[in-house]
Amino acid sequence: MSLLVLGANSLIAHAAASHFAEGGHEIIFAGRKQDEPEKYANDFSIRYKINCRAEYIDALDYPSHKKFIEDLLVKTPELDYVLIVFGYLGTQDKAQIDFNEAHRIIDTNYTGVVSVCELLAAEFETRKKGNIAVISSVAGDRGRQSNYMYGSAKAGLTAYLSGLRSRLAKSGVNVLTIKPGFVNTPMTYGMPMPKIIVASPEKVGKYIYKGMVKRKSVVYTPFYWRWIMFIIRSIPEFIFKKLKL
User: Fold this and answer.
1) Yes or no: is domain 2-240 CATH 3.40.50.720?
2) How far is the C-alpha of 226 from the C-alpha of 56, rounded, in Å?
3) Under 8 Å between Cβ of 168 and 121
C-alpha cells in the first residue's frame, strides 16, 4: 500500500506519514522545493526501511497538475491514500491592502487543492476505491476579524470537500476533512495562542492517521476543538461582532 503526501514540508504530514511508514507503507513526498521532499524521503527510507521517494509539485501551477498525477500513477498504479496539506496562513493586515497576498492565501488553501482533488477524484472514482484526506482548519467554521481571509478559504475548502465526499461515496472512495486547531508548527510561530489548547504535530498526526484508516468523514484535532467551535458558532452575531477575535 502507498501514501502520497502533497505538501512535503509539513510537520503534521510527517507525523501522520510516520504511522503509515511503521506499517510498511510506501511513502511519496511531493512538494514545491525539490530538495525538501528528497530530504524527507531519504530520512523515512533509512529510518523505517521502506520504499520512499520524492516528487515535485507546485500547488499554484495548475496546468502542471494533470501531468503530475498521470506520471505518479504510472510509477504508483495502486495508490491507496492521499494526504493533502497545501497551506499558507499569510498576513491578514497585508491581505486587506494588497490583493496579491489575498490571492496567494485563497489560491494556496483552496484553488490549488481543488485542482489536485478533482484529478484524483476522477481516478479513484473509476477504480471505485481510494482515500483522500485534506487539511482544512477550524478557522473555516466561523469568520474572525483576525484571519478572515485565511478562514474564508478554509470555509470554502470544507464546503467543497463535503460535496466531493457525497459525490464519491457511492464509488467507495472516502474523503476526509481534517480540522486542526492551534498546532505548534513554523506556520504558527510567534502567534499569541493559549498554551493549554496548543497541540503538537505528533498528536495531530496520530489523529489524522486514525481518521484515514478508519475512513472518517470529518476529524477535529484534537477532539475538543469540535466543542470549542460549537460554542463559537453558537455566539449570536451581534455579540460576536464586539469580540476581539
Assistant:
1) yes
2) 34
3) yes
Residue 189 in this model has a pLDDT that exceeds 80: no
What's the residue count for the chain?
A: 245
Q: What is the mean pLDDT of the chain?
A: 93
Give me 191's grid cell.
502567534
Report the range of poorest mean pLDDT among 1-5, 6-10, 79-83: 6-10
Domain ranges of the chain: 2-240
Residue written as grid cell 531519504: 42
Strands (DSSP E) contained in 168-238 are 174-180, 218-221
In contact, 76 and 25? CB cutoff 8 Å: no
In one letter, which amino acid is 232?
I
Closest of 233, 188, 241, 178 to residue 211, by C-alpha: 178
Which grid coordinates belong to 180? 486542526
Contacts of 158 (CB under 8 A, 6+ apart): 136, 140, 141, 177, 179
Q: Tell me the average pLDDT across 59-70.
A: 96
Q: In this predicted structure, what is the pLDDT of residue 198?
A: 81
